[in-house]
Amino acid sequence: MKKIFLSILILFSFVQITSASQISYDKSDFVPIYSVINDAAYDIRYYSSNNFTGDKIKGYKAPVAYMTRAGANALAVAANDLRKQGYRLLIWDTYRPQKAVDNFVEWINNPDNEGDKSFYPDLKKSDLLEGQYIMAKSGHTRGSTVDLTLIKKDGSFVDMGGTFDLFSEISHPNYKKLTREQKKNRKILNDAMTKAGFKGIDSEWWHFTLENEPYPDTYFNFDVDF
């Protein structure tokens, strides 16, 4: 009964969101990240099955990262700052179509599809809904949010003490059990993003949204393609 109630609740919330906010298919103010940052690396997880659902996500028709012009230009400022410190950006996700968020909701409400348990090893699937790890509303859909990490200039790994979309307290930016190096690396990323005009969230060290995002009430729904 509890699961049924939660499923109804999230679907009701989705109806409220889509009716109260504008849905747009206009991509004229979006640019690919590669047009403003020439040395970023990409691992667009929702274009592949390497994500918590275990499947490629709807709306991702190419492994490309788009943001609003304002978001991309601010990200270029952060990239330039980090470049001077010997780092490059590795981008996991930027703009996310509303149909992709809908796909997440479909997955969370499908009891027959466990997805990839390695992304939530210590939780039940229902915990992802109760803990608000997965919601029907995403800042990514507004076009000025990015999920990213640091790599060194040669492309080698920078230890952040946890990976993308790991639904765990390990992913909290200020998780206490990090090593000194991991704390330092997270701070380097956070400081550069904050100086460039982004703000983070309490649950994901990799997630940043432009503070003065140009479309705070618009949820876009065009496909990610070339």
What would a concise description of this structure say?
By secondary structure, the chain is of the alpha/beta class. The protein contains five helices and nine strands, in the order αββββαβααβαβββ.
Topology of helices and strands:
Blueprint: H1 2-20, E1 22-24, E2 30-32, E3 41-42, E4 66-68, H2 69-84, E5 87-93, H3 98-108, H4 125-130, E6 145-152, H5 180-195, E7 198-200, E8 207-210, E9 218-220
Parallel strand pairs: 1-9, 3-5
Antiparallel strand pairs: 2-4, 5-6, 6-8, 7-8
Pick out its properties.
226 residues; alpha/beta; two-stranded parallel sheet; 9 strands
* Class computed from helices, strands and strand pairing: alpha/beta
- Summarize the biggest pleated sheet: 5 strands, mixed
Order of helices and strands: HEEEEHEHHEHEEE
Mass-distribution shape: globular
Q: List low-pLDDT spans.
A: 1-19
Helix content: 25-40%
Please give the alpha-carbon distance between the first and last residues: 44 Å
- Number-wise, the strands total 9
Write down the overall mean pLDDT.
91
Strand content range: 15-25%
- What is the strand arrangement across the widest sheet? 3-5-6-8-7
How would you characterize this protein structure?
35% of the residues are buried. Helix 2 (69-84) packs across helix 5. The strands form three sheets. This protein has a five-stranded mixed beta sheet, with helices on one face. A two-stranded parallel ribbon has the order 1-9. It is α/β, with parallel strands linked by helices. The chain has helices at residues 2-20, 69-84, 98-108, 125-130, 180-195, and strands at 22-24, 30-32, 41-42, 66-68, 87-93, 145-152, 198-200, 207-210, 218-220. The model is unreliable at 1-19 (pLDDT under 50). It starts with a helix and ends in a 6-residue tail after the last strand. The radius of gyration is 17 Å and the shape is globular. 30% of the residues lie in helices and 16% in strands.
